[in-house]
Every structure is written in C-alpha cells, then in structure tokens.
Specification:
Elements (H helix, E strand, L loop, with lengths): L6 H13 L5 H4 L20 H25 L4 E12 H6 L7 E7 L9 E5 L1 H11 L17 H15 L1 H6 L6 E8 L13 E11 L2 E10 H37 L5 E4 L7 H5 L17 E5 L2 E11 L2 E9 L2 H8 L1
Antiparallel strand pairs: 1-5, 2-3, 2-4, 3-6, 5-6, 7-8, 8-9, 9-10
Helix pairs in contact: 5-6
C-alpha cells in the first residue's frame, strides 16, 4: 500500500522543487503514529492477565517441587523454570509437535466431579532419553537424536514410569488454590491421532525449561480452555462463598455484642475492708462503729460482677446515696495493693 503524505510534507516537497533545494528531511520521516495491537475478533481471549499470572505462580511452585524430585530420583542437579504461559489455539500446539513425539494424557478430577478434557504433557525427546538413561544407571549425557528416531517398546515403558514422577507434583502445586487429582490415562505415540480437543479450541500452554548436568530440554503442558474455565469457576464460587461467610460472621458478631449489651450486671460499691473476729460480730449492737481503716475522703471502688472497674467519690444525688465515677481501676495496681 502506497504511503500517504501529510499536508505539511506536500508543502515542503513543493517548496523544495520551486527553490531547487533538496527535499526537507522531514518528508522522509514518518509521522509519529500510535501503534495498536491487533485484536482477533474471530478468536477472542478468554483468560485475563491476572488469571494467567495465577497459572504462572502455580507452575513456579510446581517447578520447585518437580526440580527437587528430579534431583533426588535421578541423582542429578537440575533447575526448572517457567518460560511461557500463553493463551493459544490448539492447532498452534499440535503443529509444533512432530510425528515421533509422545503426548501424555492426564485425567484431572475436579471437586464437582465434572467431566473435562485431559491435560496434555509433551517432553522433549533429548530430555526424556537422558532421564531414562539415568534411571538405568547411565550418566544421562545429551546425545544428538535423529528427527526420525522413535521410542522403542522398552523406552515407552520407562517413559511411562518417568512421566508419572513428573505428574506427581501437580497436585501439590495446585493445593493452595483448589484440590485437584491428576491421574495418567495413557501415552499417545502419534499426536496427530489425538482428536479430543478441537483445533480451534482455546488452550493455555505452559512451557517449563529444564537444565540438567549435561542435558537440557523442556516440558510443554497444554491445558484445555474448558478445563481451566471449570477450575476458575469453582475457585470463584469458593471465594464468593468465603466472602459471604465472612459477612455472616460479622453479622453474628454484632448480634452477640448487642445481646451482651442488654445483659444485667450487678454493680456494688466498696468503701473499705475490715477484719474482725466472730466474737466481735456476735457482740455487735446498734450504734457500734466499725473502723474500715481508710480515710473518709478516700476513693471508693466500684465493682462490676466482682471485678473492680472504676473508682470514685461517695456523694448524694436527688436525696439518694450515689457515687461519682472519676477514673478506671488499673488492675495491676489494684492487685498489687490487694497483695
């Protein structure tokens, strides 16, 4: 498509032709344009960046757990890291596979027991051959594998054993968000024959890079969009339910506090203490005086259900004996004075 000049560029070009001067350099420069990312309305995105970040966090945790397991089982030092978490179409994942690759189908059991398409795992051939070699006691050194190489029956049996170790940490990596069970269904030796996911169906591809002593490779996990939507739906319901329970707990708390506020409490004032014998009590008569051992202007303690709460002064209010509350009782000081 031919470039369209702006009016200022046309004017500069005409002026340069009339004056015999070289065209201004501004003509060669393109106007500053805001670049926009094209949006495919035929295949709109289903998952937001926040949800992809959750997946990234989950598989970061998975990488740590799986890395520790590989180190202990295969006697090596490995480092796993998530390189890609991207929403794509299934044909983009399947087109990247060769006829000699092996697809691992993993059944995922959700808490609602709904039926979902399987999770797919593909491991690069050099990486799997290195792990198989280490399982058999070898050094697991990386070798050049021909593109036409296919796994033997013995290698497929060992492949199944190795991939079960890879599937194991998936449950623990999801446990902070939702309880899922992962079970190996089968190995598919020809990826082109797998038809359980439509070519235009939305998926999320997680690529995990694996670096080991003498070898490197990757694990590619394909999570079907329907499976992921069901997982997020359950997580959202639980989050909403938890928020509702929190609101209900607040209402219950206020109701309890209101009931407590309407409770009857016994309040009594204590002017002082005195210790007398039983004989003195027996000989008490009207008009006798008992010494309380406190000055007449001293504070009077106000008890609420046998607990000292306030201190104040004795007085009269509307011809009734009353106490004016002046301060709170410091329990530490009170207990010390009692002792």
């Amino acid at each position: 498509m031919a470039e369209v000049l702006s009016q200022s560029q046309i004017d500069a070009l005409l002026n340069s032709l009339q004056g015999g001067d070289e065209p201004s350099q501004d003509i060669d420069k393109k106007d500053s344009e805001v670049k926009y990312r094209k949006y495919d309305f035929y295949s709109p995105k289903k998952f937001t960046k926040d949800r992809l970040k959750v997946l990234n966090s989950i598989f970061d945790n998975y990488s740590r757990i799986a890395g520790s397991q590989i180190n202990s089982l295969f006697r090596t030092s490995s480092e796993l890291s998530v390189t890609t978490v991207e929403e794509q179409r299934y044909y983009e994942f399947s087109n990247a596979l060769s006829d000699n690759d092996v697809l691992t189908l993993v059944n995922v059991s959700l808490p609602d027991h709904s039926k979902n398409p399987p999770l797919l795992i593909n491991a690069s051939m050099p990486l799997m051959l290195s792990l198989i070699d280490r399982m058999l006691g070898g050094l697991g050194a990386e070798t050049n594998v021909d593109l036409t190489y296919t796994y033997t029956e013995i290698e497929m049996a060992l492949y199944r054993r190795v991939i079960q170790y890879i599937i194991g940490p998936l449950k623990d990596s999801w446990s902070n968000y939702i309880s899922l069970d992962f079970e190996l269904e089968r190995l598919e030796g020809n990826p082109g024959m797998f038809q359980e996911i439509g070519v235009d169906e939305t998926i999320v591809i997680v690529v995990i890079d694996v670096q080991m002593e003498g070898c490197s490779g990757r694990f590619s996990l394909c999570i079907p969009g329907n499976l992921l939507m069901n997982i997020y739906s359950i997580m959202d319901k639980r989050r909403a339910s938890a928020m509702g329970e929190e609101e209900n707990s607040q209402d219950i708390k206020m109701e309890i506090l209101n009931n407590i506020k309407s409770s009857d409490l016994l309040v009594r004032a204590q002017m002082g203490d005195s210790v007398i014998t039983l004989d003195d009590v027996y000989n008490l008569h009207v008009g006798d005086v008992i010494n309380l051992g406190t000055p007449k202007d001293s504070d009077i303690k106000l008890y609420v259900d046998d607990q000292p709460w306030f201190k104040g002064q004795l007085g009269v209010h509307k011809r009734n004996v009353a106490i004016r509350v002046e301060d709170l009782v410091e329990k530490g000081n009170y207990q010390a004075s009692e002792n």
